[in-house]
Structures are given as C-alpha cells and as structure tokens.
Write a structure and sequence with these properties.
The chain is mainly alpha-helical. It has a single domain, classed as lambda repressor-like DNA-binding domains (434 Repressor (Amino-terminal Domain), Orthogonal Bundle). α2 packs across α4.
C-alpha cells in the first residue's frame, strides 16, 4: 500500500487539505509535501500521528475504505 495515497484519500474523505491535516495531526507539512512529491512512503511514527489526529486506528488506516466519514 502506498501510505501517501492513503493519506490523500483520507484527506479528501474529510474535506481537508494536506496543510490542514498537518496542523490537525501535528505533523510537519514539509514531511507530507515532500513525501508526496518524491513518491515515497511515510514513517510508521508519522502514520501513528495521523491516525491519532484523525481518530482512527492503524488497522483502519491500512484497510482501504475504512475511516470514512458519513457518505
């Protein structure tokens, strides 16, 4: 799984921007922006921070389609 693609999916599902996600989850915006630009993967600790900020579990993060807000 591409972790950055999953983050972007969660951002869209919640009507956020990458910048707002960074603030909400206390993750440096540059980390998210550079990871996306380079096509890289996020570190586990960064994923944990994002999950905490979004109120989801790591299992939900790694389960596609999980963690969506009401549709």
């Amino acid at each position: 799984m591409n972790t950055m693609s999953r983050v972007e999916e969660l951002v869209v599902d919640r009507g956020l921007t990458l910048f707002k996600l960074a603030i909400l989850c206390d993750v440096p915006y540059s980390t998210l922006k550079n990871t996306r630009a380079r096509g890289g993967q996020l570190a586990v600790d960064t994923i944990e921070q994002i999950c905490h900020g979004l109120g989801i579990t790591m299992a939900e993060f790694f389960t596609e389609g999980a963690g969506k807000t009401g549709s």
